[in-house]
Amino acid sequence: MNRTIILIFSFALLTSCGRNAYLFSSFREPATAGLRLAYSYDGYRWKDFDTTFLKPMIDDKVMRDPSIARGPDGTYHLVFTSAWKGNRSFGYASSTDLVHWSEQKSIPVMQNEPTAVNVWAPELFYNEEKREFIIIWASTIPFRFPKGEEDEDNNHRIYYITTNDFKTFSETKLFLDPGFSVIDCEIIKRGKNDYVLVLKDNTRPNRNIKVAFANNPLGPYSKASEAFTPNFSEGPTVAKVGDEYLIYYDQYRDISFGAMKTKDFKTFTDVSKEVSLPPGHKHGTIFPVSKKDLRHLIKKVKSSQ
Fold this sequence. Notes:
Layout: H1 3-17, E1 20-26, E2 36-40, E3 47-48, E4 64-70, E5 76-81, E6 89-95, E7 105-108, E8 120-127, E9 132-140, E10 156-163, E11 173-176, E12 182-191, E13 194-201, E14 208-214, E15 233-241, E16 244-251, E17 256-262, E18 269-270, E19 286-290, H2 291-304
Antiparallel strand pairs: 1-2, 1-19, 2-3, 4-5, 5-6, 6-7, 8-9, 9-10, 10-11, 12-13, 13-14, 15-16, 16-17, 17-18
């Protein structure tokens, strides 16, 4: 390979590495206004669109913990917590441009569990090998599992369904029982047969973020790691920036966001002072978009204001 070809190849590689920007789905308390989005070109500094993209219209008419993932056909899929307690469903809507949305639907995933207390923080993951989405969430079924200091109605485990069209869904099954109350999970694919689960240990007094590993997105996952965030942390989401991962988490007691940087999910560096997020931003999911699509979205939003 001659020098010219090497230079062309190197340039193409560098440009392809810089094609992605990032969107961060969000909401604001008291969660009745609806879907918010923040954007970033570097994964560290975030700006708010200063608009609501979708107002909640189903169940308790709240939209918490919005998770967005893009399918292979370019469609954006949104799932969200649609009620605080007393509901056995989560919300769903789809969009091709993040501006115009389908009719919202309530997806009843715990209807066969009459004592289920809640359905919290649904999270999307697209399984390329099986060409289907995995949706995971936290629910409490009192007296089903051993518990620590938390109340029976706060003893969560993670459940899941799969779908390839968001019209028909698999049977609800248990996804994760780590031996303690767990919420706010996100599946990360690092490579072939290499998956990381970022999770919140919701037990008292912990309430912090840990990780587990598996060779299949549905597990089984390894024993959870030691915590790598302070207590009172929740809602982790991950952005891959270069060859590193940024794990954002909501420090809800301090009303701020923290971030940890890692390459291997075993050693972590606190980079909370290097990131900036819009005031009031609450946890959702970070997902990559092209810079071209982001510029187009910014233009659309500005023209509609």
